[in-house]
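Thread title: Can someone regenerate the structure for this chain?

I was given the following input by a collaborator and told the matching structure tokens would be attached. They weren't. Posting the sequence so someone can regenerate them.
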Amino acid sequence: MAYSVDLRERVMAYLNEGHTTKETKVIFKAGAMVIRNWKLLLSERGNLENRPLERSPSKFESEKLNAYIHTLIPLLKPNSVIILDNATFHSRTYLPVIAGAYGHKILWLPKYSPDKNPVEHVWANMKIWLRNYAKNYDTIRLAISAHFSM
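Best answer:
Regenerated them for you:
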């Protein structure tokens, strides 16, 4: 789950007022490990901004994709459009070259944004509902079924 920087700052302020982590996690509905990571982030970086992902593509993943693309592209109908997400091993340099050699185009999906994904809103609403009403059901499965049958 992604937490806003504002929430992170409020959690840290609450802790700085002398409240325990146990109290804080109940009030803000954030796990103890999450709070510990925020403390660490604050001490290491001096702020609570999200850490940038600095992962380089795996050579193995790139090689597998390259082999797959060389197998797939000749099988596509002429002038096909290949849609790819922004996975680190989807090289923006050689994939368009390979696709272009066969007359295909690559369409890159925009970077993922949970705010623009309606499924994220559905799950967020369900989790809020479950926090409030799951205790009224014998199992979590019954609570989820009840939520979706509303």
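The chain has three domains: 5-45, 59-108, 116-148.
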